[in-house]
Design brief:
Blueprint (H helix, E strand, L loop, with lengths): L3 E2 L10 H9 L12 H11 L9 E5 L2 H12 L4 E6 L3 H4 L4 H4 L4 E4 L8 H10 L8 E8 L10 H14 L2 E5 L3 H5 L8 H7 L2 E5 L9 E5 L2 H4 L2 H7 L8 H10 L5 H22 L3 E2 L7 E2 L1 E4 H7 L3 E2 L1 E5 L4 E7 L6 H11 L10
Parallel strand pairs: 1-12, 3-4, 3-5, 5-6, 6-7
Antiparallel strand pairs: 2-8, 7-8, 9-11, 10-14, 11-14, 13-14
Helix pairs in contact: 1-12, 2-12, 13-15
Length: 352
């Protein structure tokens, strides 16, 4: 019996509209290295969402790790460091990519998956014995977080104000930014984000693109020579058109960017509601397209016969936390099938 995957939101290839756009433009000749008409139009479409005050630049890269490496390393001198939560993606899921560029990661405890002004201030105070310590210079956050939670506009404003006051660069990893913006708890827009951070990126890979992310350099002081950093890090594709075409489709007249994230979030909400109503707990509130149930180990083993997912960690000797991720392609029937199979397990008291 084949299994259905809840491992991630990029198990499928790409949304059919994106594949159609790539096929339809396949034989049109275009300039290389991102200087094509498709990339220029895609950048214009994104800029339309960033507010009239936007004076930055947009660059397309193939992967999220590349977006993080280029964005962060372009801002820092060799002795400067990054402040991030211990559960942050660059800390635990990128094989030390940022450290490999020569920059220390200063980690702080997460609060609901998020970094807070208080934790940032603590990190600054604890890393101030200069020149004997690496100098904190950049704040890293991701929206949505590794546990699927999101930053409210008020939270982003507080962190942004602190960054400006302390002379720090504020960077936002947007691998699942579409899911964050589509969250029922979200009250921020792309224009808000562009006004509050120095640079961020918009994930395409996890919202139906074949591959690709859009780096948005908001601070005009950081956009000069950014392309040189992109080239040196191997992020400048000869066939950059492939990225531009996809973001044209994502930010088209009927934006796939938002509709696909809304669907993924809705499927996650249905999963979470069914899990809780069955008497099981959640390790984190479901705000986007990631669900973290706490299940008995024997129930997990039974579920793995029909579904693929990550076992995220132990809860106790008899229970573990698993991660379920929904996507633009997740079918309601698969969600129903998961919940139906789960119903055969022995529930534990829900943890709210």
């Amino acid at each position: 019996m084949s299994t259905f995957s809840f491992l991630d939101d990029y198990s499928e290839g790409a949304h059919p509209h994106i594949l159609h756009a790539l096929a339809e433009t396949n034989l049109a000749q275009q300039a290389a290295y991102g200087d094509d008409a498709y990339s220029a139009d895609a950048a214009s479409r994104i800029e339309a969402h960033l507010g009239e005050a936007f004076q930055g630049a947009i660059h397309f890269v193939a992967s999220g790790t590349m977006a993080n490496i280029v964005s962060i390393s372009s801002c820092l001198r060799p002795h400067e460091a990054v402040i991030a939560v211990g559960s942050g993606h660059i800390v635990v899921r990128e094989a030390g990519a940022i450290e490999a560029t020569g920059h220390k990661l200063i980690t702080v405890p997460a609060v609901d998956g998020k970094i807070t002004p208080e934790k940032i201030e603590e990190a600054l105070a604890a890393n101030s014995h200069f020149p004997h310590m690496a100098k904190p210079r950049l704040i890293y956050l991701s929206n949505a977080t590794e546990t699927g939670t999101i930053y409210t506009l008020a939270e982003l404003r507080k962190i942004s104000a602190l960054a400006k006051r302390r002379g720090l660069v504020l960077f936002l990893d947007g691998a699942r930014l579409a899911a964050a913006l589509a969250s029922h708890k979200n009250d921020a827009t792309l224009a808000d984000i562009a006004a509050l951070v120095d640079l961020f990126w918009i994930g395409g890979t996890k919202v139906g693109a074949l591959l690709g992310e859009a780096i948005v350099v908001c601070n005009p002081a950081l956009k000069e020579d950014f392309a040189f950093h992109l080239k040196q890090r191997g992020g400048m594709l000869a066939k950059g058109r492939l990225l531009g075409i996809q973001f044209q489709a994502l930010f088209g007249d009927s934006p796939l960017f938002s509709s696909m994230a809304q669907h993924a979030n809705a499927m996650a909400a249905k999963l979470a509601a069914g899990i809780v109503s069955g008497g099981y707990g959640l390790a984190a509130q479901t705000e986007t397209n990631q669900v973290f149930p706490i299940l008995p180990n024997n129930v997990i083993a039974a579920l793995q016969k029909a579904f693929a997912f990550y076992v995220w960690g132990k809860s106790d000797q008899e229970h573990s936390v698993i991660r379920l991720v929904t996507s633009w392609a997740t079918e309601q029937g698969q969600v129903d099938a998961f919940l139906s199979r789960l119903a055969f397990g022995q529930p534990i008291q829900a943890v709210q």
